[in-house]
Amino acid sequence: DIQMSQSPSSLSVSVGDRVTITCRASQGINNNLAWFQQTPGKAPKSLIYAASRLQSGVPSKFSGSGYGTDFTLTISSLQPEDLAIYYCQQYYAYPFTFGGGTKVEI
Amino acid sequence: EVQLVESGGGLVQPGGSLRLSCAASGFTFSDHYMDWVRQAPGKGLEWVGRSRNKANSYTAQYAASVRGRFTISRDDSKNSVYLQMNSLKTEDTAVYYCVRDGELSGVYYFDYWGQGTLVAVSS
């Protein structure tokens, strides 16, 4: 199975900060990488697919980059509604696997 | 508007069975792959399985942890996908999410999630 590792596991930030989360795959996955946001008590929400493509309706303050094994999610100016756990996921090979999550908190 | 509504969760004893349903609306259901993803209490996300569409013969794929115990099926006439769970174990306790797949150049990715349904396996 492809292992996905995220760093950091938690992040303490201030409103307006630029936030970067890293995701690393244990083997190359091309650009078959997605990012999800989960706010407390809610279902995950899709943010990005194909490493850098924004899902419909997702604000442009979210951006993704990377290819192969190393990927990043960036939030350009953090707002209170962005406090959540962020997960990366590879869909290059079965079984699909997720990173352990990055908790972004004030 | 895409909507996915799961139902069928509840409390079941170890070794028991449960069938989850996911009712879809707001899109052409038959065109899409559908997945199930679960989340144990306080834990991360775990992919459970996938149902391909009619064009791909409705074939399914499963995580090793559920293969042989869980079965995904779908009824395009009812815009619904199902997760039949047999021989349930305590470690199957989780919120189960139904997920629609988008497609880009023949590669399928998760795009919309349901609100989830809780399955608790306990004696």
Secondary-structure element series of chain B: EEEEEEEEEEE
Beta-strand share of residues of chain A: over 45%
How many helices of chain A in DSSP terms? 0
Q: What's the average pLDDT of chain B?
A: 97
Which stretches of chain B are poorly predicted, pLDDT < 50 over at least 5 residues?
A: none
Tally the beta strands of chain B.
11
Classify the beta-strand content of chain B into a percent band: over 45%
- How far apart are the first and last residues' alpha carbons of chain B, in Å? 40 Å
Query: What gyration radius of chain A follows from the Cα positions, in whole Å?
Result: 13 Å
List keywords for this structure.
heterodimer, A: 106 residues, mainly beta, seven-stranded mixed sheet, four-stranded antiparallel sheet, 11 strands, globular, B: 123 residues
TL;DR of this structure?
The complex is a heterodimer of chains A (106) and B (123). By secondary structure, chain A is an all-beta fold.
Describe the structure.
The complex is a heterodimer of chains A (106) and B (123). Chain A is an all-beta fold. Chain A has no helices and eleven strands. In chain A, strands 2, 4, 5, 6, 9, 10 and 11 form a seven-stranded mixed beta sheet that branches. Chain A has a four-stranded antiparallel beta sheet with strand order 1-3-8-7, with no helix packed on it. The mean pLDDT of chain A is 97. In chain B, strands 2, 4, 5, 6, 9, 10 and 11 form a seven-stranded mixed beta sheet that branches. A four-stranded antiparallel beta sheet of chain B has the order 1-3-8-7, with no helix packed on it. Classes of the chains: A mainly beta (106), B mainly beta (123). At the A-B interface, strand 5 and strand 10 of A face strand 5, strand 9 and strand 10 of B.
